[in-house]
Amino acid sequence: MRTIGIIIRKEFIQIFRDKTMLPIIIVMPFVQLLVLVFAATFEMKQINMVIVDQDQSASSRRLISKFEGSPFFTIDGSTFSDEQANDELLAGRSDIILKIPNGFEKNLVSGEVSDVQLLVNAINATVAGLTNAYSNYVIADFNKQMISENVNIIQPVKLKSVDVTYSYWYNPELNYKIYMLPGILVILITIIGAFLAALNIVREKEMGTIEQINVTPVQKFQFITGKLVPFWIIAMFELGFGLTLGKIIFDIPIVGNLGVLFGFAGVYLLVALGLGLLVSTMASTQQQVMFIIFFFLLTFIMMSGIFTPVESMPDWAQKVNIINPFAYFMRVIRMVLLKGSGFRDISREFFSLLIYAAIILSLAVWRYRKTA
Amino acid sequence: MTNKPIIKVENLVKKFGNFVANDHLNFEVYEGEIFGFLGANGAGKTTAIRILCGLSTPTSGNLNVAGFDIYKQTELIKRNIGYMSQKFSLYENLTLKENIRFYAGIYGLSSKEINKRMDNLLETLKIGDLRDKLIGSLPLGWKQKLAFSVAIFHRPRIVFLDEPTGGVDPITRRQFWDLIYQAANDGITIFVTTHYMDEAEYCDRVSIMVDGRIEALDTPAGLKKTYKVSNMDEVFLKLARAS
Questions:
Q1: Which candidate in A9, A11, A210, A216 is best for mutational testing of the B interface (most B CBs within 10 A)?
Q2: pLDDT score of A332
Q3: Strand B158-162 to strand B81-84: parallel, antiparallel, or no bridges (unpaired)?
Q4: A211 and B56 in contact by Cβ < 8 A?
Q5: How far does Cα A233 stand from its chain's mean position?
Q6: Residue A99 CA to chain centroid, in angstroms?
Q7: pLDDT top residue among B27 and A110
């Protein structure tokens, strides 16, 4: 125990003697939370629309004004030429073309089917999907009005339809920031923890100090523990710091029990740092470590469900996520913070990660060689 | 100096692929002596010293260090030896005090004992003012003397020095050897590699390695007599050219 304490003390002295360390620990959460939470949003605020109105009727103008009234759409041009409208789309100046063909109103009044055409720039499928959904919503609304007005004229019968009412739980305002922030916190503490831990051992290799340690009777588990604990503490501090910033700046809800969250984070970090240390015991230069860690981080982050729901990933991808520590914590931090899930709800993830941590850390201890 | 062997090496072979770095080495080091391990660059000195310290495993051979078997009792050997590598190995961003507290602590010395020995060391070397200086800010000569002092701080039975005086001036080298003599007087067996032949004269016995084999092993005086020359330089050149 004393040996581990001695290693930990030495690590802390070295970490904080490095003049760039403290700024990184304090500034990184600020920047990441402020920049990423605002930037990584899926909310569509401004969809630029070009109109090709070949009908020029009262009905067509009414449809257009519906779009104008929507907070999501900005009408930034209308033309009679299909080609000109297509050019706008091609040049990226507009996101969607609404084409109202000649005879739109005539068909509408005579009870026949009337068409409008929407051409959506679908380079980004997500944005296209949202644009489409918003447009349909506006057109459906228009439809409903038209039908009820027309039907009223002919036959004053009350329309019967199934009305769907929505109620968004856990994030009633569909505030994207509240959804993103916990995910970004996960990335933040992982980057800080895993990178620092991974670079640390390999730096001792580069400096040659590891040989001096390897000729001492220090035991392998003592060495790995001594390297793990300091970065674990820093990452846990980072989580607390990030949550505090989130509360102050974004007023994120903290519905669940913080004890459950930090308990889970503690186990999660054992896995994340364990992976870092494992890579570090295998690599011989900092450059190698950077590349390997970067590869895993990128893959794991993309698959973790921070941007896209894991449930909509293909089966094989969901299977891969069994070994993706990010995916566990990403799910749990949102469950605890936004839904207030208790330990019972996350126990499966908790014990899975606990086993994971045991395996990874054993591997790291095993792989660390005092004798080449 | 006794004739009781503290290191016994029989038929040590170390191969890296097809390259034979140590080719059937046989030698003994006696308790309390200063044993010089000489050879040109690439002769296989560092390979052998790393094996004796337990940093590397031999391909074959029987080795016994400080009474322990090198295959089965590596960790026991490590309690009894000190090592100073070619690569400077104190932490540059720690102070002298912090370095000593770290390394001595790992060897299990109590804080009280560490402080006592540290005061002693600073007094003998007259460097009380260096205690809280970062190692990185010291000149190379001092760094190496301190690295040596740290390597024997836990009072090992044997200390292995791998080219400890590389790149320092003659005066500092002389001072460094004073430290080595002092340690030998305290009963520590010194195993030192070098390619400075004047340093070989300071050793009780020297072995000369050429291309992975030990070509000669005797006292410096004995070697000069055998090869009928006046200094170690010529002994070395004769052996190295003969191959």
A1: A216
A2: 92
A3: parallel
A4: no
A5: 25
A6: 35
A7: B27
Cα distance between residue A123 and residue A126, in whole Å: 9
Give φ, ψ of B16 to 5 degrees. -115, 100
How do residues A272-331 score in pLDDT, each as one tens digit?
999 999 999 999 999 999 999 999 999 998 888 887 778 888 888 888 888 999 999 999
User: What are the tokens at A47?
Assistant: 């969809």
Residue A82's nearest CA partner among A103, A61, A52, A104 is: A52
Q: Which residues of B fall within a CB distance of 8 Å from A217?
A: 75, 78-79, 106-108
Interface test with B, best of A16, A207, A209, A225 (most B CBs within 10 A): A209
Please report the sign of the dihedral spanned by the C-alpha atoms of residue A269, residue A243, residue A330, residue A31: negative
SS3 A194: helix
Per-residue confidence (pLDDT) for residue A168, from 0 to 100: 66
Query: Residue with structure tokens 């095993």?
Result: A366
DSSP track, A110-170: TT-----EEEE--SSHHHHHHHHHHHHHHHHHHHHHHHHHHHHHH-------PPP-----S
Q: For residue A161, is pLDDT > 60? A: no
pLDDT by residue (tens digit) across B184-216? Answer: 999 999 999 988 888 899 999 999 998 899 999
Tokens at A87, concatenated: 């050019």
Domains detected in chain A = 2-40+174-367 (no CATH), 47-154 (3.40.1710.10)
Q: What is the mean pLDDT of residues B132-142?
A: 91
- B71 in A contact zone (CB under 8 Å): no
